[in-house]
Amino acid sequence: xxxLGDKVRFLNENMEGIVTSLLGKNQIGVTVDSDFEIxxxxxxxxxxxxxxxxxxxxxxxxAKPFRVATNQPLGIFLAFERVGETDLTIHVHxxxxxxxxxxxxxxxxxxxxxEKSMYLERDETKQLGKTTLSSFDKWxxxxxxxxxxxxxxxxxxxxxxxxxxxxxxTFYNFWKHCAFLNKQAYVFRLDEEVEKVDFAKLKTxxxxxxIEEKGIDFKAKPASIxxxxxDALKQNGYGTAEDITAFQMDVFAKTLEAxxxxxxxEIIFIHGVGNAYLKNKIRTYLSKHPEMVLNFTxxxxxxxxxxxxxxxxx
Length: 314
What we know:
It is a single chain. The chain is mainly β. It folds into three domains: 7-48, SH3 type barrels, CATH 2.30.30; 66-189, Immunoglobulin-like; 199-313, Ribosomal Protein S8, Chain: A, domain 1. It contains six helices and 19 strands. It has a six-stranded antiparallel beta sheet, with no helix packed on it. The protein has a five-stranded antiparallel beta sheet with strand order 4-3-2-1-5, with no helix packed on it. A hairpin with a 5-residue loop joins β1 (7-10) and β2 (16-22).
C-alpha cells in the first residue's frame, strides 16, 4: 500500500518523487525534484526504497559538525533527513550570522522542556536528534529561541522565537532540495515565519484593498481563468502600477483567496512563459499555502502552452 511520504518511481516516465497527498481512491500527488506536485494514478507508479539507509555504509565516519560552501539561502534552518523508510535525522544549520546560539525546547502539557542548547558558527550544521515518520503522531511541538550575533557590528541583533507544531497534512509539502545537505529533505526556516492565512478573518476581509477604486470587486466570485499579463490587467480594469510584478502578485493573491472563499474547485492563472520569473513566484506562493491549495500543475498545454497554472483548491 502506498502511503504519504513513500518514495515512488513513475512507470511511464524517467522520474522519481515523494507521495505528498492522497487525492482519491486511485490517485495520489507526487512531488518531484522541481518541487512541483504531479497528480498521478496509483497504477502508474511503483514504490521504491530510499537509497540512503542507516548503517549501509560501514566506512562512514562518526557524525560531527561540518562546514559547507556559502552559496546557500540565508537563514537558520531545521531539516529532517530521510535515512531509511521511516528513519529521520534532524539537523540545524546556521547561514544567518557569524555566530548563533539556539535553545531548543519541546512542549508537553503546557510545560516547556529544554532539549538542547546549540552553538553554531556560520555555515555550520549540527545534529539535533533522530526520529521516525511512523511515530509522527507522537511528535511534540518545538520552540526555538535563536540569538544570532556578529563579533563586530554596528547594530546588535534581536533574538528570534519560533514555534513549530507539525501537521501531517502539511509536513510533506516541505519536501525540497536542502542546500546544506545537498539532497532532498523536509526543510523549515526557523528565523522567518511563513505567512499564514487567517481563515477567521478571511470571510470578512476587504479583498478590494488598494485597487478596489479601479473597479474590481475582490469580494465577488472571480472568473475561472485570470490573465495576469499586465496589458490584460489594465484592459480588464485592474488599474496600473510602477512595480508590475508586485501588482500581478497582488491581483493573483487576492483572486486566489476570493476563489477559496467562494469554494471554487479550481482556477487557472495565465502568467506567460518569459523567463519563468512570475511563474516561479506564483508557485512558491502556492506551495506556502497548503491550507487553501490542494495541488497545482500546468494548465492544458494545448490551450495555454506552458504559460498557465491550474490550481485546485480545498
